[in-house]
Amino acid sequence: MRKLKEAVIEKTLLSSALVTIAVTAGIIVVLSIEAINFFREVSIIDFLTDTQWTPLFTDKHFGILPLLSGTLLTSFIAIVFAVPVGLSISIYISEYAPQSFRKTIKPALELLAAVPTVVYGFFALTVVTPFLQTFIPGLSSFNSLSAGLVMGIMIIPFISSLSEDALHAVPNSLREAGYGMGSTKLQNAFRILVPAASSGIIVSIILAISRAIGETMIVAIAAGQQPRLTLDPTVPVETITAYIVQVSLGDVQHGSLEYRTIFAAGITLFIFTFLLNTISYQIRKKFREKYE
Amino acid sequence: MNRIKKNRFKDQAFKLWGIFCTLLGIVLLSIFIGSILVDGIQRIDWDFITSLPSRKAERAGIYTALMGSVWILVLTTIIALPVGIAAAIYLEEYAKKNKLSSLLEINISNLAGVPSIIYGLLGLEIFVRVMQMGASVLAGSFTLALLILPIVIVSTREALKAVPKSIRDASFALGASKWQTVSRQLLPASSGGILTGIILALSRAVGETAPLIVIGALAYVPFAPESPMDEFSVLPIQIFNWISRPQHGFEINAAAAIIILLFITFVMNAIAVYFRNRWQSKFK
User: Fold this and answer.
1) I want to staple A162 with a disulfide (CB 3.0 to 4.6 A). Which of A109, A204, B261, B275 is the partner?
2) Residue B46 exposed, middle or buried by CB count within 10 Å (0-12, 13-18, 19+)
3) Which of B135, B77, B72, B143 is nearest to B114 (CA)?
4) The domain spanning residue A151 has which CATH number?
Protein backbone atom coordinates (compact mmCIF):
# COMPACT_ATOMS: atom_id res chain seq x y z
CA MET A 1 0.00 0.00 0.00
CA ARG A 2 2.73 2.39 1.00
CA LYS A 3 4.70 1.47 -2.10
CA LEU A 4 1.69 2.23 -4.30
CA LYS A 5 1.20 5.60 -2.65
CA GLU A 6 4.87 6.47 -3.16
CA ALA A 7 4.67 5.44 -6.81
CA VAL A 8 1.57 7.56 -7.42
CA ILE A 9 3.23 10.56 -5.81
CA GLU A 10 6.37 10.13 -7.89
CA LYS A 11 4.31 9.96 -11.09
CA THR A 12 2.39 13.10 -10.11
CA LEU A 13 5.62 14.98 -9.49
CA LEU A 14 7.02 13.73 -12.79
CA SER A 15 3.97 14.89 -14.68
CA SER A 16 4.40 18.38 -13.19
CA ALA A 17 7.96 18.41 -14.48
CA LEU A 18 6.70 17.29 -17.89
CA VAL A 19 4.45 20.37 -18.03
CA THR A 20 7.60 22.37 -18.85
CA ILE A 21 8.22 20.17 -21.90
CA ALA A 22 4.61 20.70 -22.94
CA VAL A 23 5.10 24.47 -22.72
CA THR A 24 8.10 24.38 -25.05
CA ALA A 25 6.28 22.03 -27.42
CA GLY A 26 3.23 24.32 -27.28
CA ILE A 27 5.31 27.39 -28.16
CA ILE A 28 6.97 25.64 -31.10
CA VAL A 29 3.73 24.13 -32.42
CA VAL A 30 1.67 27.32 -32.11
CA LEU A 31 4.33 29.52 -33.72
CA SER A 32 5.01 26.98 -36.50
CA ILE A 33 1.37 26.38 -37.44
CA GLU A 34 0.52 30.07 -37.72
CA ALA A 35 3.83 30.82 -39.43
CA ILE A 36 3.23 28.04 -41.99
CA ASN A 37 -0.20 29.52 -42.69
CA PHE A 38 1.50 32.87 -43.14
CA PHE A 39 4.08 31.52 -45.56
CA ARG A 40 1.33 29.94 -47.69
CA GLU A 41 0.32 33.47 -48.62
CA VAL A 42 3.64 35.28 -48.48
CA SER A 43 6.76 33.85 -50.08
CA ILE A 44 9.60 33.23 -47.66
CA ILE A 45 11.99 34.96 -50.07
CA ASP A 46 9.94 38.17 -49.90
CA PHE A 47 9.86 37.81 -46.12
CA LEU A 48 13.64 37.61 -45.89
CA THR A 49 14.64 40.08 -48.63
CA ASP A 50 11.92 42.74 -48.99
CA THR A 51 13.07 45.97 -47.37
CA GLN A 52 9.60 47.19 -46.40
CA TRP A 53 7.23 46.00 -43.69
CA THR A 54 3.75 47.44 -44.25
CA PRO A 55 1.18 44.70 -43.48
CA LEU A 56 -1.30 47.20 -42.03
CA PHE A 57 -1.39 49.44 -45.15
CA THR A 58 -3.21 48.85 -48.43
CA ASP A 59 0.10 48.46 -50.27
CA LYS A 60 1.28 45.46 -48.31
CA HIS A 61 4.94 44.46 -48.01
CA PHE A 62 6.15 41.69 -45.75
CA GLY A 63 9.90 42.14 -45.42
CA ILE A 64 11.12 41.34 -41.90
CA LEU A 65 14.41 43.23 -42.40
CA PRO A 66 13.19 46.62 -41.12
CA LEU A 67 11.83 45.04 -37.91
CA LEU A 68 15.00 42.99 -37.54
CA SER A 69 17.22 46.05 -38.03
CA GLY A 70 15.20 47.94 -35.41
CA THR A 71 15.57 45.06 -32.96
CA LEU A 72 19.30 44.67 -33.57
CA LEU A 73 19.97 48.41 -33.47
CA THR A 74 18.29 48.97 -30.08
CA SER A 75 19.91 45.81 -28.70
CA PHE A 76 23.32 46.84 -30.01
CA ILE A 77 23.09 50.25 -28.30
CA ALA A 78 22.02 48.57 -25.06
CA ILE A 79 24.87 46.04 -25.17
CA VAL A 80 27.54 48.59 -26.08
CA PHE A 81 26.46 50.61 -23.05
CA ALA A 82 25.85 47.78 -20.60
CA VAL A 83 28.82 45.46 -21.22
CA PRO A 84 31.67 47.83 -20.22
CA VAL A 85 29.70 49.19 -17.28
CA GLY A 86 28.49 45.76 -16.13
CA LEU A 87 31.94 44.22 -16.43
CA SER A 88 33.60 47.09 -14.55
CA ILE A 89 31.02 46.69 -11.80
CA SER A 90 31.68 42.95 -11.53
CA ILE A 91 35.47 43.46 -11.36
CA TYR A 92 35.11 46.26 -8.85
CA ILE A 93 32.71 44.34 -6.61
CA SER A 94 34.62 41.07 -6.72
CA GLU A 95 38.21 42.44 -6.45
CA TYR A 96 38.17 45.94 -4.97
CA ALA A 97 35.07 46.59 -2.89
CA PRO A 98 35.11 46.08 0.88
CA GLN A 99 32.79 43.33 2.12
CA SER A 100 30.32 45.72 3.75
CA PHE A 101 29.91 47.85 0.61
CA ARG A 102 29.35 44.71 -1.40
CA LYS A 103 26.59 43.53 0.89
CA THR A 104 24.58 46.72 0.50
CA ILE A 105 25.26 47.33 -3.19
CA LYS A 106 24.22 43.92 -4.50
CA PRO A 107 20.54 44.12 -3.49
CA ALA A 108 20.49 47.71 -4.81
CA LEU A 109 21.71 46.51 -8.20
CA GLU A 110 19.15 43.71 -8.17
CA LEU A 111 16.50 46.37 -7.73
CA LEU A 112 17.42 47.69 -11.20
CA ALA A 113 16.29 44.38 -12.66
CA ALA A 114 13.11 44.34 -10.58
CA VAL A 115 11.69 47.58 -11.98
CA PRO A 116 8.85 46.76 -14.44
CA THR A 117 9.85 47.48 -18.03
CA VAL A 118 6.84 49.71 -18.68
CA VAL A 119 8.32 52.01 -16.05
CA TYR A 120 11.66 52.08 -17.88
CA GLY A 121 9.76 52.95 -21.05
CA PHE A 122 8.24 55.99 -19.34
CA PHE A 123 11.73 56.93 -18.11
CA ALA A 124 13.14 56.75 -21.65
CA LEU A 125 10.32 58.77 -23.16
CA THR A 126 9.90 61.50 -20.55
CA VAL A 127 13.38 61.90 -19.03
CA VAL A 128 16.14 60.48 -21.26
CA THR A 129 14.86 61.63 -24.67
CA PRO A 130 14.26 65.27 -23.61
CA PHE A 131 17.68 65.27 -21.91
CA LEU A 132 19.44 63.94 -25.02
CA GLN A 133 17.55 66.43 -27.19
CA THR A 134 19.30 69.30 -25.41
CA PHE A 135 22.58 68.39 -27.13
CA ILE A 136 21.43 66.25 -30.09
CA PRO A 137 19.10 68.75 -31.80
CA GLY A 138 17.97 66.40 -34.59
CA LEU A 139 16.79 63.71 -32.17
CA SER A 140 13.19 62.77 -32.81
CA SER A 141 10.93 62.21 -29.81
CA PHE A 142 10.84 58.49 -30.58
CA ASN A 143 14.30 57.06 -31.27
CA SER A 144 16.39 53.95 -30.79
CA LEU A 145 19.17 55.80 -28.94
CA SER A 146 17.29 56.54 -25.75
CA ALA A 147 15.36 53.24 -25.84
CA GLY A 148 18.67 51.39 -26.24
CA LEU A 149 20.42 53.30 -23.45
CA VAL A 150 17.59 52.71 -20.99
CA MET A 151 17.47 49.05 -21.98
CA GLY A 152 21.21 49.05 -21.20
CA ILE A 153 20.51 50.29 -17.67
CA MET A 154 18.00 47.48 -17.28
CA ILE A 155 20.44 44.73 -18.31
CA ILE A 156 23.45 46.00 -16.31
CA PRO A 157 22.54 43.79 -13.31
CA PHE A 158 22.29 40.68 -15.51
CA ILE A 159 25.84 41.19 -16.73
CA SER A 160 27.34 42.34 -13.44
CA SER A 161 25.91 39.61 -11.22
CA LEU A 162 26.63 36.67 -13.56
CA SER A 163 30.14 37.96 -14.35
CA GLU A 164 30.84 38.49 -10.68
CA ASP A 165 29.85 34.89 -9.95
CA ALA A 166 32.27 33.80 -12.66
CA LEU A 167 35.12 35.94 -11.28
CA HIS A 168 34.35 34.70 -7.79
CA ALA A 169 34.66 31.08 -8.96
CA VAL A 170 38.24 31.55 -10.12
CA PRO A 171 40.46 29.68 -7.60
CA ASN A 172 42.31 31.90 -5.16
CA SER A 173 45.63 30.28 -6.03
CA LEU A 174 45.55 32.05 -9.40
CA ARG A 175 44.93 35.38 -7.69
CA GLU A 176 47.74 34.85 -5.22
CA ALA A 177 50.13 33.77 -7.95
CA GLY A 178 49.45 37.05 -9.74
CA TYR A 179 50.03 39.14 -6.63
CA GLY A 180 53.14 37.11 -5.88
CA MET A 181 54.56 38.26 -9.20
CA GLY A 182 54.00 41.84 -8.09
CA SER A 183 51.00 42.74 -10.21
CA THR A 184 48.47 45.36 -9.19
CA LYS A 185 44.80 44.48 -8.73
CA LEU A 186 44.08 45.90 -12.15
CA GLN A 187 46.74 43.82 -13.88
CA ASN A 188 45.57 40.76 -11.97
CA ALA A 189 41.97 41.38 -12.98
CA PHE A 190 42.54 41.85 -16.70
CA ARG A 191 45.46 39.49 -17.30
CA ILE A 192 44.49 36.56 -15.06
CA LEU A 193 40.94 36.66 -13.70
CA VAL A 194 38.99 37.89 -16.74
CA PRO A 195 40.66 35.34 -19.07
CA ALA A 196 40.11 32.58 -16.49
CA ALA A 197 36.45 33.55 -16.06
CA SER A 198 35.94 34.29 -19.75
CA SER A 199 33.35 31.55 -20.38
CA GLY A 200 31.15 32.80 -17.54
CA ILE A 201 31.51 36.36 -18.73
CA ILE A 202 30.62 35.38 -22.29
CA VAL A 203 27.53 33.57 -20.99
CA SER A 204 26.44 36.70 -19.14
CA ILE A 205 26.84 38.78 -22.30
CA ILE A 206 24.94 36.29 -24.47
CA LEU A 207 22.08 36.16 -21.98
CA ALA A 208 22.02 39.96 -21.89
CA ILE A 209 21.80 40.09 -25.70
CA SER A 210 18.95 37.59 -25.63
CA ARG A 211 17.20 39.69 -22.98
CA ALA A 212 17.62 42.86 -25.03
CA ILE A 213 16.30 41.28 -28.23
CA GLY A 214 13.17 40.04 -26.48
CA GLU A 215 12.54 43.24 -24.51
CA THR A 216 9.21 44.76 -25.44
CA MET A 217 7.78 47.63 -23.45
CA ILE A 218 10.79 49.97 -23.45
CA VAL A 219 11.07 49.88 -27.24
CA ALA A 220 7.30 49.91 -27.78
CA ILE A 221 7.07 53.13 -25.76
CA ALA A 222 10.28 54.97 -26.62
CA ALA A 223 11.55 53.71 -30.00
CA GLY A 224 8.43 54.37 -32.03
CA GLN A 225 6.26 52.38 -34.41
CA GLN A 226 7.78 53.08 -37.81
CA PRO A 227 9.47 50.05 -39.34
CA ARG A 228 12.43 51.28 -41.36
CA LEU A 229 15.72 49.83 -42.48
CA THR A 230 18.25 52.19 -40.94
CA LEU A 231 21.29 52.38 -38.69
CA ASP A 232 20.49 55.95 -37.67
CA PRO A 233 19.86 55.94 -33.90
CA THR A 234 18.09 59.32 -33.89
CA VAL A 235 14.99 58.39 -35.91
CA PRO A 236 11.93 56.31 -34.94
CA VAL A 237 12.18 52.58 -35.69
CA GLU A 238 10.06 49.56 -34.84
CA THR A 239 11.28 46.31 -33.29
CA ILE A 240 9.77 42.85 -33.75
CA THR A 241 8.34 42.97 -30.24
CA ALA A 242 6.91 46.48 -30.65
CA TYR A 243 5.17 45.38 -33.85
CA ILE A 244 3.48 42.47 -32.03
CA VAL A 245 2.26 44.91 -29.38
CA GLN A 246 1.04 47.37 -32.03
CA VAL A 247 -1.05 44.70 -33.78
CA SER A 248 -2.35 43.29 -30.48
CA LEU A 249 -3.64 46.72 -29.45
CA GLY A 250 -5.60 47.08 -32.68
CA ASP A 251 -8.66 45.14 -33.73
CA VAL A 252 -7.26 42.40 -35.94
CA GLN A 253 -9.50 39.52 -37.04
CA HIS A 254 -8.44 36.05 -35.94
CA GLY A 255 -7.25 34.03 -38.93
CA SER A 256 -6.51 37.06 -41.12
CA LEU A 257 -3.13 37.60 -42.71
CA GLU A 258 -2.47 40.53 -40.36
CA TYR A 259 -3.13 38.21 -37.41
CA ARG A 260 -0.61 35.72 -38.78
CA THR A 261 2.10 38.33 -39.23
CA ILE A 262 2.59 38.52 -35.45
CA PHE A 263 3.31 34.79 -35.36
CA ALA A 264 5.75 35.07 -38.28
CA ALA A 265 7.46 37.91 -36.40
CA GLY A 266 7.25 35.88 -33.18
CA ILE A 267 8.92 32.80 -34.63
CA THR A 268 11.78 34.96 -35.95
CA LEU A 269 12.27 36.34 -32.46
CA PHE A 270 11.99 32.89 -30.89
CA ILE A 271 14.63 31.41 -33.21
CA PHE A 272 17.09 34.17 -32.32
CA THR A 273 16.66 33.89 -28.56
CA PHE A 274 16.55 30.09 -28.71
CA LEU A 275 19.93 29.98 -30.46
CA LEU A 276 21.47 32.43 -28.00
CA ASN A 277 20.08 30.56 -24.98
CA THR A 278 21.28 27.20 -26.29
CA ILE A 279 24.79 28.52 -26.94
CA SER A 280 24.96 30.01 -23.45
CA TYR A 281 23.69 26.76 -21.89
CA GLN A 282 26.38 24.74 -23.64
CA ILE A 283 29.14 27.14 -22.57
CA ARG A 284 27.83 27.13 -19.02
CA LYS A 285 27.85 23.34 -18.89
CA LYS A 286 31.45 23.19 -20.03
CA PHE A 287 32.42 25.93 -17.60
CA ARG A 288 30.84 24.12 -14.66
CA GLU A 289 32.97 21.06 -15.36
CA LYS A 290 36.11 23.17 -15.44
CA TYR A 291 36.12 24.22 -11.79
CA GLU A 292 34.31 21.37 -10.05
CA MET B 1 56.86 58.65 -13.82
CA ASN B 2 58.35 55.18 -13.56
CA ARG B 3 56.53 52.00 -14.44
CA ILE B 4 55.47 51.04 -10.92
CA LYS B 5 53.97 54.44 -10.23
CA LYS B 6 52.17 54.34 -13.54
CA ASN B 7 50.67 50.94 -12.77
CA ARG B 8 49.57 52.07 -9.32
CA PHE B 9 47.98 55.15 -10.84
CA LYS B 10 46.09 53.04 -13.39
CA ASP B 11 44.97 50.77 -10.59
CA GLN B 12 43.57 53.67 -8.57
CA ALA B 13 41.95 55.16 -11.67
CA PHE B 14 40.17 51.90 -12.36
CA LYS B 15 38.99 51.73 -8.78
CA LEU B 16 37.34 55.14 -9.16
CA TRP B 17 35.87 54.09 -12.50
CA GLY B 18 34.47 50.96 -10.80
CA ILE B 19 32.80 53.01 -8.10
CA PHE B 20 31.42 55.35 -10.75
CA CYS B 21 29.92 52.47 -12.76
CA THR B 22 28.47 50.80 -9.68
CA LEU B 23 26.73 53.96 -8.63
CA LEU B 24 25.72 55.00 -12.17
CA GLY B 25 22.70 52.74 -12.50
CA ILE B 26 21.55 53.39 -8.96
CA VAL B 27 21.93 57.16 -9.30
CA LEU B 28 20.02 57.14 -12.60
CA LEU B 29 17.26 55.09 -11.00
CA SER B 30 17.08 57.53 -8.08
CA ILE B 31 16.91 60.52 -10.43
CA PHE B 32 14.10 58.83 -12.25
CA ILE B 33 12.15 57.88 -9.14
CA GLY B 34 12.67 61.40 -7.87
CA SER B 35 11.29 62.96 -11.03
CA ILE B 36 8.31 60.61 -10.98
CA LEU B 37 7.59 61.43 -7.37
CA VAL B 38 7.64 65.14 -8.21
CA ASP B 39 5.25 64.57 -11.14
CA GLY B 40 2.92 62.06 -9.65
CA ILE B 41 2.72 62.34 -5.87
CA GLN B 42 0.27 65.24 -5.85
CA ARG B 43 -2.12 63.15 -7.95
CA ILE B 44 -2.29 60.26 -5.49
CA ASP B 45 -5.22 60.36 -3.13
CA TRP B 46 -7.98 58.00 -2.11
CA ASP B 47 -10.09 59.06 -5.12
CA PHE B 48 -7.30 58.14 -7.54
CA ILE B 49 -7.20 54.62 -6.12
CA THR B 50 -10.96 54.08 -5.95
CA SER B 51 -12.11 55.83 -9.16
CA LEU B 52 -13.10 54.05 -12.35
CA PRO B 53 -11.24 54.89 -15.58
CA SER B 54 -12.39 58.01 -17.40
CA ARG B 55 -11.75 60.00 -20.54
CA LYS B 56 -11.00 63.01 -18.37
CA ALA B 57 -7.53 62.76 -16.91
CA GLU B 58 -8.37 64.49 -13.64
CA ARG B 59 -11.28 62.15 -12.92
CA ALA B 60 -9.65 58.90 -14.00
CA GLY B 61 -8.57 56.37 -11.38
CA ILE B 62 -6.83 53.03 -11.21
CA TYR B 63 -9.48 51.00 -9.36
CA THR B 64 -10.28 48.51 -12.15
CA ALA B 65 -6.61 48.08 -13.09
CA LEU B 66 -5.56 47.57 -9.48
CA MET B 67 -8.31 44.99 -8.90
CA GLY B 68 -7.29 43.30 -12.18
CA SER B 69 -3.70 43.05 -10.94
CA VAL B 70 -4.87 41.54 -7.64
CA TRP B 71 -7.01 38.95 -9.44
CA ILE B 72 -4.14 38.08 -11.77
CA LEU B 73 -1.70 37.72 -8.86
CA VAL B 74 -3.97 35.43 -6.87
CA LEU B 75 -4.92 33.16 -9.78
CA THR B 76 -1.35 33.03 -11.14
CA THR B 77 -0.13 31.94 -7.71
CA ILE B 78 -2.80 29.24 -7.45
CA ILE B 79 -1.88 27.86 -10.88
CA ALA B 80 1.92 28.18 -10.88
CA LEU B 81 2.71 27.24 -7.27
CA PRO B 82 1.71 23.55 -7.08
CA VAL B 83 3.08 22.71 -10.53
CA GLY B 84 6.34 24.60 -10.01
CA ILE B 85 7.08 23.18 -6.56
CA ALA B 86 6.13 19.63 -7.62
CA ALA B 87 8.37 19.85 -10.69
CA ALA B 88 11.26 21.13 -8.57
CA ILE B 89 10.82 18.33 -6.00
CA TYR B 90 10.88 15.78 -8.81
CA LEU B 91 14.02 17.20 -10.41
CA GLU B 92 15.91 17.66 -7.15
CA GLU B 93 14.87 14.62 -5.11
CA TYR B 94 13.51 11.95 -7.44
CA ALA B 95 15.05 12.28 -10.90
CA LYS B 96 17.88 9.94 -11.76
CA LYS B 97 20.68 11.11 -13.99
CA ASN B 98 19.36 10.06 -17.36
CA LYS B 99 18.37 11.50 -20.73
CA LEU B 100 14.96 12.62 -19.51
CA SER B 101 16.29 14.61 -16.59
CA SER B 102 18.98 16.32 -18.67
CA LEU B 103 16.34 17.16 -21.29
CA LEU B 104 14.19 18.68 -18.53
CA GLU B 105 17.17 20.71 -17.32
CA ILE B 106 18.03 22.13 -20.75
CA ASN B 107 14.38 22.80 -21.40
CA ILE B 108 13.80 24.76 -18.18
CA SER B 109 16.93 26.84 -18.67
CA ASN B 110 15.71 27.59 -22.19
CA LEU B 111 12.18 28.50 -21.08
CA ALA B 112 13.61 30.98 -18.59
CA GLY B 113 15.15 32.80 -21.56
CA VAL B 114 12.09 32.88 -23.81
CA PRO B 115 10.92 36.50 -24.23
CA SER B 116 7.71 37.21 -22.32
CA ILE B 117 5.89 38.33 -25.45
CA ILE B 118 6.26 34.80 -26.88
CA TYR B 119 4.31 33.49 -23.89
CA GLY B 120 1.66 36.01 -24.88
CA LEU B 121 1.42 34.47 -28.36
CA LEU B 122 1.18 30.99 -26.79
CA GLY B 123 -1.58 32.17 -24.43
CA LEU B 124 -3.45 33.91 -27.24
CA GLU B 125 -3.63 30.75 -29.31
CA ILE B 126 -4.06 28.09 -26.59
CA PHE B 127 -6.03 29.73 -23.79
CA VAL B 128 -7.90 32.51 -25.56
CA ARG B 129 -8.75 30.70 -28.84
CA VAL B 130 -8.50 26.92 -28.46
CA MET B 131 -9.76 26.68 -24.88
CA GLN B 132 -12.22 29.51 -25.54
CA MET B 133 -11.43 31.46 -22.38
CA GLY B 134 -11.49 34.75 -24.26
CA ALA B 135 -9.41 37.66 -23.02
CA SER B 136 -10.35 36.79 -19.43
CA VAL B 137 -8.56 37.03 -16.11
CA LEU B 138 -8.20 33.25 -16.21
CA ALA B 139 -6.48 33.25 -19.63
CA GLY B 140 -4.13 35.99 -18.41
CA SER B 141 -3.33 34.07 -15.23
CA PHE B 142 -2.55 30.86 -17.10
CA THR B 143 -0.26 32.79 -19.45
CA LEU B 144 1.65 34.46 -16.60
CA ALA B 145 1.74 31.17 -14.65
CA LEU B 146 3.61 29.54 -17.54
CA LEU B 147 5.88 32.58 -17.69
CA ILE B 148 6.93 32.38 -14.03
CA LEU B 149 7.03 28.57 -13.87
CA PRO B 150 10.78 28.33 -14.71
CA ILE B 151 11.59 30.95 -12.05
CA VAL B 152 9.59 29.09 -9.40
CA ILE B 153 11.22 25.76 -10.34
CA VAL B 154 14.78 27.11 -10.32
CA SER B 155 14.42 28.91 -6.97
CA THR B 156 12.64 25.98 -5.30
CA ARG B 157 15.44 23.67 -6.43
CA GLU B 158 18.03 26.05 -4.98
CA ALA B 159 16.15 26.03 -1.68
CA LEU B 160 15.94 22.22 -1.59
CA LYS B 161 19.61 21.95 -2.50
CA ALA B 162 20.53 24.08 0.50
CA VAL B 163 18.98 21.62 3.00
CA PRO B 164 21.89 19.64 4.49
CA LYS B 165 22.13 15.98 3.50
CA SER B 166 22.21 14.98 7.16
CA ILE B 167 18.51 15.85 7.49
CA ARG B 168 17.64 13.46 4.64
CA ASP B 169 19.83 10.71 6.09
CA ALA B 170 18.32 11.11 9.55
CA SER B 171 14.81 10.88 8.17
CA PHE B 172 15.56 7.78 6.11
CA ALA B 173 17.31 6.19 9.09
CA LEU B 174 14.12 6.52 11.09
CA GLY B 175 12.32 4.53 8.42
CA ALA B 176 10.57 7.39 6.64
CA SER B 177 9.65 6.90 3.00
CA LYS B 178 10.86 9.29 0.32
CA TRP B 179 7.63 11.31 0.28
CA GLN B 180 7.51 11.45 4.09
CA THR B 181 11.05 12.82 4.04
CA VAL B 182 10.14 15.38 1.42
CA SER B 183 6.86 16.51 2.94
CA ARG B 184 7.80 16.47 6.63
CA GLN B 185 11.48 17.42 6.56
CA LEU B 186 12.63 19.00 3.32
CA LEU B 187 9.67 21.25 2.52
CA PRO B 188 9.43 22.78 6.01
CA ALA B 189 13.22 23.21 6.14
CA SER B 190 13.35 24.93 2.76
CA SER B 191 10.12 26.92 3.08
CA GLY B 192 11.94 30.23 3.58
CA GLY B 193 13.92 29.84 0.39
CA ILE B 194 10.90 28.66 -1.59
CA LEU B 195 8.87 31.61 -0.33
CA THR B 196 11.61 34.05 -1.40
CA GLY B 197 11.64 32.63 -4.92
CA ILE B 198 7.86 32.73 -5.20
CA ILE B 199 7.59 36.33 -4.07
CA LEU B 200 10.28 37.36 -6.57
CA ALA B 201 8.48 35.47 -9.33
CA LEU B 202 5.20 37.19 -8.44
CA SER B 203 6.83 40.60 -8.37
CA ARG B 204 7.91 39.84 -11.92
CA ALA B 205 4.35 38.83 -12.84
CA VAL B 206 2.81 42.00 -11.41
CA GLY B 207 4.98 44.17 -13.67
CA GLU B 208 4.45 42.16 -16.86
CA THR B 209 2.72 44.09 -19.62
CA ALA B 210 3.50 42.66 -23.05
CA PRO B 211 2.06 39.12 -22.76
CA LEU B 212 -1.21 40.46 -21.36
CA ILE B 213 -1.52 43.00 -24.17
CA VAL B 214 -0.97 40.19 -26.67
CA ILE B 215 -3.71 37.97 -25.21
CA GLY B 216 -6.06 40.94 -25.54
CA ALA B 217 -6.32 42.49 -22.08
CA LEU B 218 -7.97 45.86 -22.45
CA ALA B 219 -6.81 49.30 -21.44
CA TYR B 220 -10.36 50.45 -20.79
CA VAL B 221 -12.52 48.23 -18.61
CA PRO B 222 -15.55 49.91 -17.05
CA PHE B 223 -15.80 47.59 -14.02
CA ALA B 224 -13.49 45.56 -11.83
CA PRO B 225 -13.55 41.81 -12.61
CA GLU B 226 -15.99 39.79 -10.52
CA SER B 227 -15.22 36.31 -11.79
CA PRO B 228 -12.26 34.60 -13.48
CA MET B 229 -14.05 34.77 -16.82
CA ASP B 230 -14.40 38.58 -16.83
CA GLU B 231 -12.34 40.85 -19.03
CA PHE B 232 -9.69 42.83 -17.22
CA SER B 233 -6.92 45.37 -17.22
CA VAL B 234 -3.82 45.51 -15.04
CA LEU B 235 -1.77 48.40 -13.64
CA PRO B 236 1.08 48.20 -16.19
CA ILE B 237 -1.38 48.22 -19.10
CA GLN B 238 -3.20 51.21 -17.61
CA ILE B 239 0.15 52.98 -17.31
CA PHE B 240 1.09 52.10 -20.89
CA ASN B 241 -2.26 53.42 -22.10
CA TRP B 242 -1.84 56.70 -20.25
CA ILE B 243 1.73 57.11 -21.55
CA SER B 244 0.53 56.78 -25.14
CA ARG B 245 -1.98 59.63 -24.80
CA PRO B 246 -0.88 63.11 -25.81
CA GLN B 247 -2.55 65.16 -23.03
CA HIS B 248 -0.27 66.22 -20.17
CA GLY B 249 -2.88 65.25 -17.55
CA PHE B 250 -2.51 61.59 -18.49
CA GLU B 251 1.26 61.79 -18.15
CA ILE B 252 0.75 62.86 -14.54
CA ASN B 253 -1.70 59.99 -14.07
CA ALA B 254 0.90 57.60 -15.50
CA ALA B 255 3.50 58.92 -13.05
CA ALA B 256 1.09 58.49 -10.15
CA ALA B 257 0.19 54.93 -11.20
CA ILE B 258 3.91 54.14 -11.59
CA ILE B 259 4.50 55.23 -7.99
CA ILE B 260 1.90 52.71 -6.86
CA LEU B 261 3.27 49.93 -9.12
CA LEU B 262 6.85 50.57 -7.94
CA PHE B 263 5.67 50.61 -4.34
CA ILE B 264 4.08 47.18 -4.79
CA THR B 265 7.18 45.78 -6.56
CA PHE B 266 9.65 47.16 -4.04
CA VAL B 267 7.63 45.97 -1.06
CA MET B 268 7.50 42.47 -2.55
CA ASN B 269 11.26 42.54 -3.14
CA ALA B 270 11.91 43.78 0.37
CA ILE B 271 9.81 40.97 1.83
CA ALA B 272 11.70 38.46 -0.33
CA VAL B 273 15.09 39.79 0.81
CA TYR B 274 13.91 39.67 4.44
CA PHE B 275 12.85 36.03 4.15
CA ARG B 276 16.07 35.15 2.35
CA ASN B 277 18.27 36.66 5.04
CA ARG B 278 16.31 35.04 7.85
CA TRP B 279 16.34 31.70 6.11
CA GLN B 280 20.01 31.80 5.13
CA SER B 281 21.11 32.42 8.70
CA LYS B 282 19.24 29.24 9.69
CA PHE B 283 21.75 26.96 7.97
CA LYS B 284 24.91 28.83 8.90
Assistant:
1) A204
2) exposed
3) B143
4) 1.10.3720.10
* Model confidence pLDDT, tens digit, residues A132-171: 999 888 888 899 999 999 999 999 999 998 899 889 888 8
Chain A interface mutation, best of B22, B91, B124, highest count of A Cβ atoms under 10 Å: B22
Give Cα B37 to chain centroid, integer Å. 23
B155 touches chain A (CB under 8 A): no
Q: Measured between beta carbons, which residues in chain B are less than 8 angstroms from residue A114?
A: 200, 203-204, 207, 265-266, 269
Return the number of other C-beta atoms located less than 10 Å from residue A109's C-beta.
20
Residue of A nearest to B17 (CA): A88
Nearest to B251 among A23, A126, A157 (CB): A126
Q: Are residues A128 and A71 in the same domain?
A: yes
Alpha helix (H) residue ranges in chain B: 3-40, 46-50, 63-89, 99-111, 116-123, 137-161, 165-173, 178-181, 187-207, 210-215, 235-243, 248-282
> Are residue A173 and residue A70 in the same domain, yes or no?
yes
What is the pTM assigned to this prediction?
0.92
Cα B65 from Cα B81, distance rounded (Å): 24
With beta carbons under 8 A apart, name residues in chain A contacting B97: none
Residues A6, A80 within the same domain:
no
User: Could B239 and A278 be called an inter-chain contact, meaning their C-beta atoms sit closer than 8 Å?
Assistant: no
Minimum CA–CA partner of A103 in chain B: B277
Please give the DSSP secondary-structure letter assigned to residue B57: T
Summary mean pLDDT of chain A: 89
- The reply to whether A48 falls in a domain is no
Q: Give which of A111, A156, A125 is closest to A242, Cα–Cα.
A: A125
- The parent domain of residue A37 ranges over 2-41
Q: Each residue of B18-61: pLDDT tens digit? A: 999 999 988 988 988 898 898 888 888 888 888 887 777 778 88
Instruction: Specify if A33 maps to a domain.
Output: yes
Task: Using an 8 Å CB-CB cutoff, list chain B residues near A91.
Answer: 14, 18
* Residue A181 sits at the chain B interface (C-beta within 8 Å): no
Q: Domain B46-282 - what CATH class?
A: mainly alpha
Q: How far is B88 from chain A (nearest CA, A)?
A: 7
Taking only the tens place, the pLDDT of each residue in A234-264 is 899 999 999 999 999 887 778 788 889 999 9
pLDDT tens, B147-192?
999 999 999 999 999 899 999 999 999 999 999 999 999 999 998 8
A95 in the same domain as A205: yes
**Domain total in chain A:** 2
Contact of B178 with chain A, judged by CB distance below 8 Å, is answered with yes
Q: Is it the case that residue A2 has pLDDT exceeding 90?
A: no
